[in-house]
Amino acid sequence: MENTVAETGSMLSTALTSAASTIQSELTAAVPIAIGVGAVILAVCLGYKLFKRLAK
Questions:
Q1: Which of 20, 29, 34 is nearest to 12 (CA)?
Q2: Looking at the predicted structure, is the pLDDT value of residue 2 above 80?
Q3: Rounded to whole angstroms, how far apart are CA atoms 52 and 43?
């Protein structure tokens, strides 16, 4: 059985909405972790520079 253009468009819309929702939930979960890792890297770099400056 072939789908009409309207049915195909509706199925495509549903699939894209589902994909967008999944991507958004994955990003929402990953962003706090990425910010934490970035903060640790920044702290280590700044701490190393400060240590080098004070150790002279």
A1: 20
A2: no
A3: 14
pTM, 2 dp: 0.60
Decide: helix, strand or coil at residue 3.
coil
> Which tokens in the block code for residue 19?
């994909």
B/e letters for 22-51, b = 16+ CB within 10 Å, e = fewer, are eeeeeeeeeeeeeeeeeeeeeeeeeeeeee
Residues written for the chain: 56
pLDDT of residue 1: 60
Report yes or no: 11 and 3 within 8 Å, Cβ to Cβ: yes
Tokens of 29: 């979960």
Distance CA 51, CA 19 (A): 47
